[in-house]
Amino acid sequence: MTGPTIGRLAAADTRWVAERIAEAFLVLPATRWLVPDEAKREAVFADNFEILVDHAMRHGLVFGTADRDAVAVWFPQVGDESPAPVDYADRLAAACGEWTPRFQHLDELFAANHPHPDHHHLALLAVRPGRQGQGLGTALLRHHHAWLDAHGVPGYLEASSEAGRDLYARHGYRLREVFRLPDGTPFYPMWREPGGGGGGPGRPPGGAARVAPG
Questions:
Q1: Taking all residues of the chain, what is their mean pLDDT, rounded to a whole number?
Q2: How many C-beta atoms surround the C-beta of residue 213 within 10 A?
Q3: By C-alpha distance, which of 19, 154, 13 is closest to 74?
Q4: Alpha-carbon distances, residue 157 vs 66, 67, 91, 105 (angstroms)
Q5: pLDDT at position 80, please?
Q6: Distance (Å, rounded) from C-alpha 80 to C-alpha 66?
Q7: pTM of the prediction?
Q8: If you write DSSP's letter for every residue of 36-100 in order, what string do you get?
Q9: How many other C-beta atoms lie within 10 A of the C-beta of residue 20?
Q10: Residue 27 and residue 133 in contact, taking contact as beta carbons nearer than 8 Å
């Protein structure tokens, strides 16, 4: 049986990619702390993710399945040379409104736990809720892992649930030190050596991401 068709997406796809990610992420515990108002949560996250997806269209890699049900956003990182989105502070405030300080706190947590060695950072991976558990997330991982392995490049991500942590462990990611939001919600930073080996660097700072299970 053949897997789903996967292709690289373009700038014109930015908004629907952001909306797909927001829809998939609503089940994650971290979203409830970041945006306590359930009625506004999805819209805030769609606007927030649009900033990151737009940045990835310029400085990263955005892949999706042909049916638009699953997407992955990667950022190549060379040392500390990772440009921030243009006008990020103003755009974040416009997207997140009264909850902007919570998103800023999350960014600081990600930065304090992000590794420095060269790698590709899986910032966002999301699958439409009705299609989760059908192998779409796995297909997206394998698609880019093939390139990483061929070029000897490690991968890094922050899983935002135990299910996500376990999924990525099956694809060769190894858990580093867990960090938490103020309400205790954990994030699971994970590092993958080329070829799926474990190990990885220590804990120097830098970076930002959100990854949901597929």
A1: 90
A2: 22
A3: 154
A4: 24, 25, 24, 18
A5: 66
A6: 34
A7: 0.90
A8: --HHHHHHHHHHHHHHHHHHHHHHSEEEEETTSSEEEEEEEEBTTB-PPPTTHHHHHHHHHGGGH
A9: 23
A10: no
**Residue 199 predicted with pLDDT over 80:** no
Q: Which residues contact 36 (CB under 8 A, 6 or more apart)?
A: 99
Segment 61-79 shows an average pLDDT of: 94
User: What's the confidence (pLDDT) of residue 81?
Assistant: 65
Tokens at residue 104, please?
A: 């800023």
- Contact (Cβ atoms closer than 8 angstroms) between residue 45 and residue 84: no
Contact, 37 vs 106, CB < 8 A?
Answer: no
Three-class DSSP category at 26: coil
| CA–CA separation, 209 and 68 (whole Å) | 21
Amino acid letter for position 110: F
Cα–Cα distance measured from residue 212 to residue 214, given in angstroms and rounded to the nearest whole number = 7
Which residue's structure tokens are 């796995």?
Answer: 138
Indicate the SS3 state at residue 186: strand
- Max CA separation in the chain (angstroms): 48
Best CA proximity match to 177, nearest among 80, 112, 82: 112
